[in-house]
Design goal:
The complex is a heterotetramer of chains A (about 110), B (about 80), C (about 250) and D (about 575). Helices cover about 75% and strands about 0% of the residues of chain A. Chain A is mostly helical and about 110 residues long. In chain A, helix 1 runs antiparallel to helix 2 and helix 2 packs antiparallel against helix 3. Chain B is mostly helical and about 80 residues long. With about 250 residues, chain C is mainly α. Chain C has one domain. Chain D is about 75% helix and about 0% strand. A two-stranded antiparallel sheet of chain D has the order 1-2. In chain D, helix 1 runs antiparallel to helix 3 and helix 6 runs antiparallel to helix 7. In chain D, about 65% of the residues are buried. The chains are: A mainly alpha (about 110), B mainly alpha (about 80), C mainly alpha (about 250), D mainly alpha (about 575). Chains in contact: A-B, A-C, A-D, B-C, C-D. Chains B and C meet through helix 3 of B and helix 3, helix 7 and helix 10 of C.
Chain lengths: ~110, ~80, ~250, ~575
């Protein structure tokens, strides 16, 4: 229960940051946080049905669900890919406009 | 145990979003990655833990630090 | 200013509450987590894939097609990032004023660079281990690849300290060009291994060669495709990530 | 080769092409690299046609369902190759092939572009065939990342921001997608559409609130890619600032494939019909609202981008009805739109490049400009005319057939009239855009902008003309043989053959009415108050926060509506 609330809080933090923070790098932080929230949620919930890591060997083990773990490996990688691309885009925008403020950049593009 | 670590993760994330110094934010983020990795380890997910440590705490921190070094350190907004 | 802050806080709060209103029923419900899939894999996973690490059995066996997609995502993101940075007009020479190793002044740099150079072979060895043993222990191609990449970066940093002489020349051959060739070939390998039927064909091949050599290769044959995939992914990820990092350190001019 | 292997070829052939092209990139230029890249493009964009041809008999026999590499259905990745998959693949390959041909003349060039482009083509085929929730997530992420990179490849600062906004908002949406996936996995323990459906039916409450909210999360996250109201805000900048070839494929193909994938998914979910109906109504609103904004634009490509939103509104409106006949009409318009909007982006892009300005109010004398840039027979102008007449739904071009087929579905309701009004505004908007072909004003500053003499060095090459020629002849052919095309699509989608033909007296009369009304709207729009209103619409505030809030608002509305139904 507390875990779930904390995961939701984590997700909410990321989302609120994405909406309110104008700094491009902060937005990338926010996306990373949102992604980590769902990863934690999947892994924790999938662990509810067992107590052992899904590695065969030894008898009488009660495994956790390995499927969410396999899925989350992909989600983590996708998350870092998104971060990398977001940051290089932020870098190019900074090199051109000299600021990381998204509203300021938008305003300047409007004037060009 | 997991709840306590998770609470720190949430706190560090909030700090990362609010910090004026972006570099402090990155450090907070990589702390959350390391802590998440330990959560995954405790939750019997060693594969995810290793990935999170290698990717979240390693690779993405490098990229974030690179981005900040090549742009600016303070969030002026 | 103050009003702007207030407005922004209100927007953030509104966003979070809208989202949580939708997500709360999904996250907070007390439905029992399903066990059928876990039981199926625990019973059949080893026989079907030969992997004792059940996560690997899914990641590189049952759902290897997703993993192929993930590799592609990584390829696009890294290649796109490298191209975006490389095409920046008037980019300063990062080799001189950038890069983590140079930031602490000349005295420290040398020591760190040399240590990094010496550590590189060990890191590469560890990466190879993580990559090769993904089917029995935690880890696998992706994680191993990231470790391999950091090994390559260590080489690059070490080279900066004093050139090629300090580490074995055979390892220092990892220039951006070599890395891109490795990346391309590894990608083609992963692709070939992911095509339906090729895994079974490979297993058959291993079994046949094992039989002709008089070895019972049954277990190796079953897990062969997973090991091959791990190697392919490891090299692909390692070279891709290393390319990005080398470029970020400013070493793309060679 | 077995059926399931054959069905994977449209996915794997472009990937094989991408691998060759990646190798070409590693070789850093030279004749060998060039040959590798070319053969990669050929393998990726031409050979899949052969695979599709071989699949046709199997598709007509009812399609194939399988899991990738034959893994057990409970955990493996389910795929479905049926008439819809086949058609969506045809749409994707046509758009991708023509736009790639154009890119060989007018950029972007290079092995990296080819690699990413082929990967995108492959992901389109993946998205069309997948019947697994997590696989759909992966497909959408590949499509997304490839688009961000392709949009940014125009190297314009505005394109970087457009790519960043698109990336941020759709990545955030994809996290919601994962929450939806989480919901379904926790209730059903499976990820394949069929498995989810079967498990939900077995539950006493059909999954209850979790299933409803998860449906909303999935649908809203995919709706962003389709750019239906209210989650369309990322599209205009991205499509307007991308390189022309990329605009053509983004507008022509990339906003449609996710829509049909969503349709397939919602077909399996308990509240899927309601979700489709709701999104369909949003589509009608989109069709009308976006065209009004389009009419107010002064940037030629941004005008086209808003038209893409408007036209996808037509498609979504028909798609929302869900029945096979409606799906056939939706697909027809999606396909025709891929042809004529691709054509429009390529021709208008060429003209604006040649003239050196994109301002619709300033650019004049486009025909002369084309002549100076090496288009002696004004082929680009003809191509533009075919595209414009198609989107204005004038006979005998293809837009006439598909818009009438959609209108027929809504006969008598408010949707019919909304779409009719949207059609008139489309006419007005393209009358306005066609003004670029008016003779240059004497002594006007437009001369200095390059119309009269100083043409920036664009040479309109053979591949550019060839790609436009292909698209234009397809527009004409599908228009002339509209009834045959409609019958074929209906057959593939399992819909009853449509009753009447396209060229009925009533339809022709309607086209005349639309034209007359459109001319009147055009007159209003070009008047002084009209121009002032246009400037006000153009200058309306748009922010990134608004983009995310629109997504969240749409999600909440969808969730609330579904909860009320359920």
């Amino acid at each position: 229960m507390i875990r779930r609330l904390l995961v939701l809080a984590l997700f909410g933090t990321g989302l609120a940051g994405l909406v309110t923070k104008r700094n491009l790098i902060k937005k990338a932080y926010a996306l990373a946080i949102m992604n980590s929230a769902i990863v934690i949620l999947f892994v924790l919930e999938g662990a509810a049905i067992g107590s052992d890591a899904p590695l065969l060997g030894g008898a009488g083990k009660l495994f956790v669900d390995p499927i969410p773990q396999a899925l989350m490996l992909t989600a983590i990688v996708v998350g870092v890919c998104v971060s990398a691309l977001a940051l290089t885009l932020a870098y190019r925008l900074y090199r051109h406009f000299g600021t990381l403020d998204i509203d300021e950049i938008k305003r300047r593009i409007g004037h060009e | 145990m997991i709840e306590a670590i998770l609470a720190i993760v949430v706190a560090a994330s909030i700090y990362a979003i609010l910090a004026r110094d972006l570099l402090h934010g990155v450090i907070a983020l990589s702390v959350t990655s390391v802590l998440s990795a330990s959560i995954f380890f405790l939750a019997s997910a060693p594969d995810v833990a290793i990935t999170e440590a290698a990717v979240g705490a390693g690779l993405s921190t490098i990229i974030f630090v690179w981005a900040i070094r090549n742009t600016e350190r303070t969030d002026r907004s | 200013m103050r009003r702007g802050k207030l407005l922004s806080a209100a927007t953030g709060l509104a966003a979070a509450s809208l989202a949580l209103a939708v997500l709360a029923p999904v996250v907070m419900s007390d439905v029992d987590w399903p066990t059928a899939a876990r039981d199926t894999i625990a019973a059949d996973g080893y026989a079907a894939t030969g992997a004792t690490n059940l996560v690997s059995a899914i990641y590189l066996g049952y759902r290897a097609f997703d993993t192929l997609g993930e590799t592609i995502v990584l390829l696009v993101a890294l290649a796109g990032s490298v191209a975006l940075v490389a095409s920046t007009p008037g980019r300063p020479d990062l080799d001189r004023d950038g890069g983590p190793a140079d930031s602490r002044g000349p005295g420290h740099t040398d020591i760190i660079n040399v240590i990094a150079g010496k550590l590189a072979p060990i890191v590469l060895l560890f990466g190879t281990y993580v990559m090769l043993y993904g089917h029995t222990s935690p880890g696998g191609g992706f994680q191993g690849g990231v470790v391999l990449a950091s090994g390559v970066i260590f080489i690059a940093i070490g080279r900066r300290a004093g050139g090629i002489g300090r580490i074995s020349p055979s390892i220092t051959a990892f220039g951006p060009r070599t890395l891109s060739v490795i990346e391309a070939i590894a990608f083609a390998t992963v692709l070939a291994l992911s095509f339906p039927g090729s895994g079974a064909a490979l297993a058959g091949l291993i079994e046949a060669t094992g039989a002709s050599a008089g070895v019972a290769a049954k277990g190796v044959a079953a897990v062969g495709p997973i090991i091959a995939l791990n190697i392919g992914i490891g090299l692909k990820v390692g070279s891709g990530v290393a390319l990005l990092c080398v470029m970020m350190l400013g070493g793309d001019q060679e | 080769m077995s059926d399931s292997e054959l069905a994977m070829l449209p996915v794997f052939l472009p990937l094989a092409g991408a691998a060759l092209s990646l190798l070409a990139k590693a070789l850093h230029g030279g004749a060998k690299a060039r040959a590798l890249e070319d053969s990669g493009a050929f393998i990726g964009l031409a050979l899949p046609w052969a695979a599709l041809a071989a699949m046709l008999p199997r598709v007509l026999a009812g399609g194939v369902s399988f899991t990738v590499s034959g893994w057990s259905g409970a955990i493996g990745i389910a795929q479905r190759f049926d008439g819809l998959t086949w058609l969506v693949d045809v749409l994707g390959l046509t758009g991708a092939g023509a736009a790639y041909l154009y890119s060989r003349g007018n950029g972007p060039k290079g092995p990296l572009f080819t690699t990413v482009y082929l990967i995108q083509a492959s992901a389109l085929a993946m998205t069309a065939a997948t019947a697994d929730l997590f696989n759909l997530f992966v497909c959408l992420e590949i499509l997304g990342l490839a688009s961000y990179v392709l949009v940014a490849s125009s190297e314009k600062p505005g394109a970087f921001l457009a790519a960043f906004s698109y990336l941020a908002v759709s990545s955030a949406a994809m996290v919601f997608f994962l929450f939806g996936l989480f919901g379904f996995y926790r209730v059903t323990g499976t990820l394949s559409y069929e498995g989810i459906q079967a498990a939900l039916v077995a539950l006493p409450d059909g999954g209850g609130a979790i299933a409803t909210m998860s449906t909303a999360c999935l649908a809203a996250a995919i709706a962003i890619r389709v750019a239906v109201m209210p989650v369309y805000g990322w599209l205009p900048d991205a499509h307007a600032l991308a390189p022309h070839a990329v605009s053509a494929i983004l507008s022509g193909v990339l906003i449609k494939t996710p829509l049909f994938a969503l349709g397939r998914l919602l077909g399996y979910l308990p509240s899927g019909q309601e979700a489709m109906a709701l999104i369909g109504s949003a589509g009608v609103v989109t069709a009308l609202a976006a065209v009004v904004v389009a009419l107010s634009q002064k940037d030629a490509k941004r005008l086209l981008a808003y038209h893409s939103i408007s036209q996808i509104g037509y498609v979504v409106a028909a798609w929302g009805l869900g029945a096979p006949a409606a799906m056939a009409a939706a697909f027809l318009h999606a396909f025709y739109h891929a042809l004529f909007k691709g054509l429009l982006f390529l021709s208008v892009g060429t003209i604006t490049d040649a003239a050196g300005t994109r301002n619709v109010y300033e650019l004049r004398g486009a025909a002369g400009t084309l002549g100076k840039s090496g288009d002696r027979f004004r082929l680009v102008g003809v191509a533009y005319a075919v595209g414009a007449l198609s989107i204005m739904a004038l006979p005998p071009l293809n837009g006439f057939a598909s818009k009438n087929a959609i209108g027929y579905l809504f006969k008598g309701g408010w949707r019919y009239w909304a779409l009719f009004a949207a059609g008139a505004c489309t006419v007005a908007s393209f009358l306005k855009l066609s003004m670029i072909f008016l003779p240059a004003r004497r002594g006007a500053p437009a001369d200095a902008a390059g119309v009269a003499g100083s043409v920036p060095g664009l040479r309109i090459g053979g591949t550019m003309k060839a790609s436009m020629l292909i698209l234009a002849s397809l527009c004409v052919a599908t228009g002339l043989f509209a009834d045959a095309t409609t019958a074929a699509v209906s057959r593939l989608l399992g819909a009853p053959p449509p009753a009447g033909g396209a060229f009925t007296a009533a339809n022709l009369l309607k086209a005349l009415q639309t034209l007359a009304l459109g001319a009147a709207v055009f007159g209003l729009a070009m008047s002084k108050p009209g121009k002032r209103l246009a400037a006000a619409i153009r200058g309306r505030p748009r922010s990134f926060a608004g983009l995310v809030m629109a997504f969240l608002g749409g999600l909440a509305v969808l969730a609330a509506a579904l909860a009320r139904f359920g």
